[in-house]
Amino acid sequence: MRRLLTSLAAAVALAFCALVLPRAYADPRPPGPLNAAELRVALRRLQVTGSVLYVGAHPDDDNTSLLAYLARGRLLRAAYLSLTRGDGGQNILGGEQGDALGVLRTQELLASRRLDGAEQYFTRALDYGFSKSSDEALAIWGHERILADVVWVIRRFRPDVIVDRFGTDASGGHGHHTAAAILTGEAFRAAADSTRFPEQLKYVTTWQAKRLVWNRFASGPAGQTPGPEQRVTLDAGAYDPALGLSYPEIGGRARSLNRSQGTGTRERRGPVLESFVHRDGEPAERDLLDGVDPGWSRVGGGATVEGLLRDAERQFDPDHPSAILPILVRAHAAMAALPRDPLVSRKLRELEDVMRSCAGLWLEAIAQTPTVSPGDSLRVTFTAINRSPSPFALARIELPFGARAFYAAGAAPAATPGPPGSPPAPVAADSSAPADRTPRPLPANQPVVAVGSILLPTDLPFTQPDWLRERPLAGSFQIADPRRIAEAENAPAVAARATVDFAGEPVTFEVPVVYRWTDRVYGDRYRDLEVLPPVTCRFDQGVYLFAQPPPRKARLPVQIVREVRLAVQSTRGPVTGVARLLPPAGWRAEPAEIPVTLAAGAEEILSFRVTAGGRAEAETLRAEVEAGGRTYSSRLERIDYPHVPIQALLSPCEANLVHVDLERRGEQIAYLMGPGDDVPVALRQMGFRVTLLDDDEVESADLSRFSCVVAGVRAYNTRPRLRVLEPRLLDYVKNGGRLVVQYCTPEDALKDRLGPWPLTISRDRVAVEEAEMRFLAPAHPLLNVPNQITARDFGGWVQERGLSYANPWDPRYDAVLSANDPGEPPRDGGLLYTKYGQGVFIYTGLAFFRQLPAGVPGAWRLFANLVSAER
User: Fold this and answer.
1) pTM to 2 decimals?
2) Which residues, at least 6 apart from 71, have a Cβ–Cβ distance to it below 8 Å?
3) Above 90 in pLDDT, residue 739?
4) Cα-flanking dihedrals φ and ψ of residue 71, to 5°?
5) For site-directed labelling of 695, which of 91, 424, 484, 771 has its Cα 20 to 30 A away?
């Protein structure tokens, strides 16, 4: 995993530092040394060889309190396997959906792991949205395909105990949850069977865990509570004086990092009982790890290593941690002499990082620029600082792609001031001292600097998550290298290797090349080095509406022309070329191409005229830029939140075209934004003038000037003041206004608080996007004014019909549409309408927030009806 390849202990170091010294931003900074208290814990952890794998379906299914207890309290190697990356969920933080949301949620899980101390893995399963059936989930994912991934993780991680988050019955409450439990149960035995997925055995060996258990929820459905003989319990609520926190306190903080999902969790103190129901393998009698040898006796020849590690712990002096380096050097030599085994290799890397911490050793490789392109020359400054009195040497520095580094004739450069892109201060290089051949002593607290220039290969892959490099299948991602299937994130784009001589014992560390700058507010900040195309482009809209009047109102054929703007951006150096649009068949874009001349890092907005054509209502418009004899057609999206490192995501430069008969009535709409809400953009394209109102404006503005007020998705959840202001909104309705409330998640505080008559937001939903939509009131204005809605308008919907339907509701509401998932009763609360005074109130759980950005024509027509005046 990127930034963690140096060792498992590097992840431990980051995790402890995150607890002790929180930062304003989660940056991919080099792992710093552990402090004295953390070092004592790490020395104890070196003596523990047991492991536990926890399995769930989604990023926020992990039990962070238990993981913290296992990793930090029991000092076990713990990991969480999430079958999906959560790309089908919602986002309470911003506009990321789909692939971008999966990237964000992946990073949120890694942020959680830095706190609870566990590792993170995934399968290739795609989160296609809420599922009520495990059979559906297994069919869409590909049963054998995802089973192979779970087996791969087990064989690679080699857990002593596997823990399921969910049971195999309906208690999971979600088809993905139950499918995860089914797959884990099958993988428990399949991982030990050499006839199952034998292609994996080129890289790993078979593995049989001792037991599989279900981490049963504290309270379950009636009749499902197991007897004491079927389970073991443990108290995960212990307090850790070294950290000054209990494990559930750590778990609460870790779980709260799933911020896109709004999973803020309280930090519990006192006893927290965890219950485990036996599923397979050898039953436990008193403890989750009954029968597991937690020490080095399970490794042939491990007694010598264990003795040396115990001596190091006994002689550890927190005021002089480097004093135990001679013992650790002997332990390293003894461990390296053991037969090759994954457990030994992992502990060897863990020991190396403890040695680094005892020496206070700082290693970093800083790129001159944050962004490069294949074929570029990249200047890298490598710095090593020994912050201990113990003498040792920097034996060599190795740069990739055949590059060489030379020791510099000066001190390490300061962090780059200002925004990313400002070059660091130049450092003179001594060409007579090649760093890959000439050992250099590391005197106490004196920087040793080397500088090199790397010529990047012309075929160096662009920065892109491995699971997004290829077009996915219907239910799962495709990853070319089978060894990368389970990885949470990419390996570093460019990395150096530094070999340090600890009293004759060489230890090699991998040091990712990153970019560092000094932010005027937050100080030192780091970001991963990005490999990007030299030029990217993006449309100013994700969807373009080409609305034409219905045939009954069009006397002559109508030719619809729209301005389409394309932003073209240089990612690093100057760019000269041409940009062009690639319209679908029957459409026309003018001019055919536009010349582009950009300075380094500059952006230019180009304007094209696009004429609608063809017969399809939904089409795709593409763009490309030709420069330097090559064609580029990528859109760059950066995900930047304080709790995760900056992420770069490349996707095809495309926009959806909606060519449809559509009318609207009214002029001005007030919009109450919810999180991650693109609906105002759609309303503006329909021709409305949209005003975004904050809470103060809702309270004080003259609402009567608006023909409609629309509340965005989850606006009442994320803007609690709107609940207080609901009477004012209802007065607006009573006096002739139109209020449309999009879906809210169920909360007691919202029960009977929305609308003029009682209604309750439920968890009812219709997850099958092709579910039949039945018209309960075919003549209803919502289905006829100003656009006549037919069954055809519900074709092509994506992911789901709707969620958070009303149930129950007052009979004074009209239920307009009905649908249901297979085997379920009709769900009629997805679109409710009532007249109140002289105006209209509408609640809808239909997933317009997904359909409008996806360019679903019928959803645009129906939403126009919701917000349009009826006369």
Assistant:
1) 0.91
2) 77, 78, 116, 117, 118
3) yes
4) -80, -40
5) 91
Q: Is the dihedral of CA 299, 305, 311, 314 positive or negative?
A: negative
**What does the alpha-carbon distance between residue 381 and residue 425 come to, in Å, rounded to a whole number?**
10
User: Comparing C-alpha atoms, which of 38, 46, 45 is closest to residue 321?
Assistant: 38
If you classify domain 535-659 with CATH, what class do you get?
Answer: mainly beta
d(CA 630, CA 735) in angstroms, rounded, equals 61
Q: Is residue 335's pLDDT more than 50?
A: yes
Q: How many helices (H) and strands (E) does the chain have?
A: 17, 45
For CATH 2.60.40.2310, list the domain ranges present in the chain.
535-659
Alpha carbon of 422 to those of 374, 403, 463, 528: distances in Å?
20, 23, 21, 15
Question: How is residue 275 written in tokens?
Answer: 């219950």
> Helix-strand-coil percent breakdown of the chain, rounded to 5?
25, 30, 45
Confidence check: pLDDT of 784 > 70:
yes
**Residue pointed to by tokens 């001190």:** 411
CA dist 117 and 12 (Å) reads 6
E strand or H helix at 45: helix 36-45
The tokens of 387 are what? 């912050």
First-to-last CA distance in the chain? Answer: 60
Alpha carbons 607 and 624: distance in angstroms, whole number? 14
Residue intervals in the chain for CATH 3.40.50.880: 663-867
**CA torsion angle for 294, 298, 299, 300 (degrees, to 10)?**
150
Contact call for residues 152 and 502 (beta carbons, < 8 A)? no
With beta carbons less than 8 A apart as the criterion, state whether 735 and 841 touch. no
Q: Give the span between the Cα atoms of 592 and 102, in whole angstroms.
A: 36
CB 762 within 8 A of CB 804: yes
In the DSSP assignment, the letter for residue 725 is: H
The CATH fold of domain 663-867:
Rossmann fold (3.40.50)
pLDDT in tens, 699-716: 999 999 999 999 999 999
User: Among 275, 72, 291, 49, which Cα is nearest to 163's?
Assistant: 275
Scanning the structure block, which residue is given the tokens 């649908």? 819
The Cα–Cα gap between 670 and 737 comes to: 11
Spatial CB neighbours of 811, under 8 Å, sequence gap ≥ 6: none
Distances (CA, A) of 423 to 26, 164, 357, 415, 495: 23, 49, 30, 10, 20
The secondary structure of 128-179, three-state, reads CCCCCCHHHHHHHHCHHHHHHHHHHHHHHHCCCEEEECCCCCHHHCCHHHHH
Q: Are 652 and 631 in contact (CB under 8 A)?
A: no
d(CA 644, CA 642): 6
Whole-number pLDDT of residue 213: 96
What are the residues facing 441 on neighbouring strands?
Answer: 393
pLDDT of residue 425: 52
Tokens matching residue 510: 């991998």
Cα dihedral sign, 151-153-159-162: negative
Name, in order, each residue with C-beta under 8 angstroms of 720's C-beta and a sequence gap of 6 or more: 749
Cα 142 to Cα 147, 169, 198, 213, 679: the distances in Å are 8, 20, 18, 24, 34
In the numeric block, which tokens belong to residue 90?
A: 């919602």
Q: 152: which 2 tokens? A: 């791969």
CB of 416 within 8 A of CB of 369? no
Q: 10 Å Cβ neighbour count for 565?
A: 12
Inter-helix orientation angle 134-141/175-190, to 10°: 60
Residues 6+ apart with CB under 8 A from 485: 123, 124, 149, 152, 479
User: What type of residue is 698?
Assistant: V
